[in-house]
Design a protein that fits this description.
Layout lengths: L1 H16 L2 H8 L1 E3 L2 E4 L4 E4 L4 E6 L3 H12 L3 E9 L9 E6 L7 H15 L6 E7 L2 H4 L9 H13 L4 H10 L7 H6 L3 E7 L22 H11 L5 H11 L14 E7 L1 H14 L3 E9 L3 H13 L4 E8 L13 H13 L5 E7 L11 E5 L6 H9 L3 H8 L2 E2 L10 E8 L1
Parallel strand pairs: 4-5, 4-7, 5-6, 7-8, 8-9, 10-11
Antiparallel strand pairs: 1-2, 2-3, 11-15, 12-13, 12-15, 13-14
């Protein structure tokens, strides 16, 4: 129990380091009528000439922090925020949507408002774009000829087939009206300054919220190759659109970042891991960051991490960050972190003095009410039952009665997942 309590405290310390309230004041520095943005190497003269667009799980906190700094110089704002976000009485309009991390009609309507905000910007105005993990689902405006339902079906088909976040985003960029640099195109000749909290391994700008303000080097041909390799069955309208683009009948997303736009990452998984490491040291552990590029099948990662922990001695904290995938073949419920934890629990069964917390830094693992799960030697009583649950992708129903699910609630940020492994023996 002590290890679990420590792991949860370390998780909370990591999340605190990447909250918008901690990050934005470092990157929006106001001096009278001058706004300095060090990460962008940009200085902007304020004169009631800032529009604000925000989308993602950290959008509410990013907006509040930006409004506190810029005050009356924000003349209009639209934020596409997660369902459950508290009401906001500032200049920026909050539009809750994307229940269960999935695009929906309310999120699409918010994206339409952001498009209109961008189109209405004039020369001499700044569009401040604040984006974060979950931004793809909260900015789901499809191209003409594809419905939201078809776009959602395509995303589900690709995710179920095991597409990586890079592959998902490549396709989403090519069936979106705003992603892949298209939002920045709409704003010209006004200036775009974008700050991002990254939820993608390696922090590649085209993949954060599917890159609405940066160039896109992927092509329609790349998208078609992804679909064919995975064997994903996409709606006919989506597949036809990709095929038309591959044939050169449609304009590609801009391959270079529009000249009016600049974008920088201000929060990342690595930053959270460093904070977790410091918190572990404060609690008396020798801490090591193993990687911030954890990926692959969740169940395989869980087995590997558990075996790593089994060979450790002393009082140690080992940290992994990144984002795994789940190939869904069963009918159960769960998410990446829960499946990883269940696979790890099977490996740890009967052992003492070691355990791990696998959790999404956004507080939501898949379409469930949990961020992830704790796993140790006591989590699995009957291995056969655990293996059956794993085979059915039913980690949630197996782990829930064990009392090990971790429910911190929505955190207000998103820098992918963390695995906090603790050893004391």
């Amino acid at each position: 129990m002590v290890l679990r309590v420590d792991a949860e405290a370390i998780f909370h310390a990591a999340v605190a380091a990447v909250l918008p309230e901690a990050l934005l004041p470092q990157h929006l520095q106001r001096d009278g009528d001058r706004l300095r943005m060090p990460a962008l190497e940009l200085v902007w003269k304020l004169d009631r000439n800032v529009r604000l667009a925000a989308f993602g799980k950290a959008a509410p906190g990013m907006v509040r922090a930006a409004e506190a700094i810029l005050g009356e110089h924000i003349v209009a704002g639209v934020a596409s925020v997660p369902v459950g976000t508290a009401l906001h009485d500032g200049v920026t309009e909050f539009h809750p949507g994307a229940a269960d991390n999935l695009p929906d009609r309310t999120a699409m309507e918010a994206a339409e408002r952001i498009r209109d905000l961008a189109v209405g910007a004039s020369e001499g105005e700044l569009l401040l774009v604040l984006m974060s993990g979950g931004g793809s689902a909260l900015l789901p405006l499809p191209v003409v000829g594809i419905t939201l339902e078809q776009k959602l079906a395509a995303t589900r088909a690709l995710a179920t087939a095991g597409a990586t976040i890079h592959e998902l985003n490549a396709v989403r960029r090519h069936i979106s009206a705003l992603k892949g640099g298209r939002l920045a195109q709409l704003v010209a000749p006004a200036t775009v300054a974008a700050l991002a909290i990254s939820d993608v391994i390696g922090d590649p700008l085209p993949d954060i919220a599917s890159g609405p303000t940066v160039g896109d080097t992927s092509t329609y041909g790349d998208c078609l190759a992804i679909i064919e390799r995975l064997g994903a069955e996409l709606p006919p309208a989506v597949l036809a659109h990709i095929e038309r683009g591959t044939a050169g009948e449609l304009e590609e997303t801009p391959s270079a970042t529009p000249q009016n736009a600049c974008t920088a990452v201000i929060g990342s998984n690595r930053l959270a891991l460093e904070a977790a490491s410091a918190a572990a040291v404060e609690r008396g552990y020798e801490a090591s960051i193993i990687t911030d590029m954890l990926q692959g099948e969740a169940r395989d990662a869980g087995k590997h991490i558990a075996r790593h922990l089994a060979g450790e001695r002393g009082r140690r904290c080992l940290l992994w960050g990144g984002e795994t995938t789940v190939r869904v073949t069963g009918k159960g419920r769960g998410g990446r972190c829960q499946e990883l934890a269940l696979a790890a629990a099977i490996e740890l069964q009967g052992g003492k003095g070691a355990g791990l917390l696998a959790a999404g830094t956004d507080g939501q693992d898949g379409a469930t009410d949990t961020a992830g799960s704790w796993a140790d030697g006591e989590t699995v009583a009957r291995e056969a039952d655990a293996l059956a649950a794993l085979a059915d992708n039913d980690a949630y129903e197996f782990l829930s009665p064990a009392g090990v699910l971790f429910r911190p609630g929505l955190t207000g940020t998103n820098v992918m997942d963390m695995v906090i492994g603790l050893v004391d023996r």
